[in-house]
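S1.2 Input.
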Amino acid sequence: MVTLAQLRDTDLSGLVPAATAYDTLSANFNKHVQTMHHEVVRHIYSASWVGNAAGAANASLQRTSERLDAAHTEMSAVSGLLREAYDSLLLAQLKLKEALQDAQNRGLTVADSGTVTWPAPSKAEQNDPGYNIPEQAKALANRISGAVTEADNADQKVAALLDALTERARNGSGLETDKAAADLKAVTQQGVDLMSVGFPPAGTPATEVNAWWKSLPPDEQQRFIQTFPDLLGMRDGIPAEARNQANRLQLTHLLDVYEHKPNLTDDEKQKLDGFRAIDAKLKGYGDQKPPIFLLGVSEEGQGRGILSYGNPDTAKNVSAYVPGLGTKLSDVANKDGDRARNVWQATQNADPTASAASMVWLGYDPPPGLDKLADGDTRTLDVMDTDRAVKGGAAYDKFMAGLRATHDGPPAHLVALAHSYGSTTVGMGAQMPGGTGADDIVLVGSPGTGAQKASQLNIDPSHVWVGDAESDPVSHLPSAPRAAMGALDPVLGGLGSDLYTAAGGQPNQLWFGQDPASKEFGANRFAVPFGLPQESHSNYMEKPDLKAGPNDNAISSNNIGQIVAGRYNHVTRQDQR
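S1.3 Output.
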């Protein structure tokens, strides 16, 4: 049973050299194995020796060769297990030491038993409603107990596996190929399990995840990135540089898995197209400015992808764009990635003296495009409810909290930017406890946020911005169910935007609440191009141009760039509806 004192005081540094020694032993032994194969077995097999003696010799050599291979496998298992032991025990030890330091900073005393005590409160503290030392002590005791329990669980698992490997070496069963392979598999699987208990559990605030990451030595951070990219790449609170490294490794893995998968479904083919598109974007981008970061990639749902133009951990002005209806994973590297790049350029144009980062965030499942209705894909009708937006909004809030936690220096000017159904997603997230944490919220082509007032978005309404073209049919989707499908017709056929008047005489009530561009909603409205009905919904983040006139597509991007740069007086305004 591991105790607090043992975990606190144990020097784990000897485990890594021990693992390295086994690596060396294994490598040298493998050279002997290869010599046996090439210099002995191969010559015997290729000789013309036949007969009973030859058959017996061949069988004996085969058994010897298999036993040597098994011995090499067992050595590899020991090496891997020692490294996993070091990683898992170190993580538990770091958690314990962080908790003990917090206790010391608060004037609390921690006994070797794990009991937390504190000085008797003064009279002033007794009368202070904010006095909460007992609750702090309880929380610290739980953290300490959790760290010791993690270490004990890891210790027991490692000890059991080492005992098994030792017994196999003693009785010779480890020289059987199938048993050696099973041992290596057990160690590999157990290693993942040991590491998972050391990572901050799901739901841990991004600030705590970031503190945990910073507590790791740099060489351990790199080992984790190389060994467990899937656990780090999508974890909010992990810095952008580390996420980028992990996700590029994970992307290579996903490509390998999906390119060798037999009988891919249509959804799997779409994910593979997305992985390939992101891979091509990264490889083709080279050393262009700003640098590009892969902040997320996974096979979850319809596929996840997050690209950033510029480093959000060091940039002064940061935006995270959420695309909407019909977005596919491949769009992250194409049209939606291009929009994020345009926003970066517009932000730099607005304030060349400040660094910027602009992201496209596909961390949820938007409803499939309306064109899928013709193919019988009824999931397209999900655009009429908020289930996907609610789930996506919660994930977006966590991502934004992660950006706050990992940023270096003074806080960035952080902007939530969303288009189409993405604005519903951001709106739903903004109404949750804590909201998006953004300094400004920018909504374009919005069918509504689920809110009736900008003040419901957990932000000062003067920092909510709306861009909606009068010719954009999506920004006129009525709340009246009888008119819903009729309002989708303009998107499908380019019939204009005047059908919104069919919404029972409530032109400012959209499908997802109050029209964000209306006076009743109470947000700022900025100028965007009018455009043709069939084009206007896609014209909000075109290539910026500071010389653009009021009817040029670039006017919208220019205004978004001014908002992200915090230059509100330079935004061209438009009257609310």
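S1.4 Remarks. The first strand starts at residue 109 and ends at 110.
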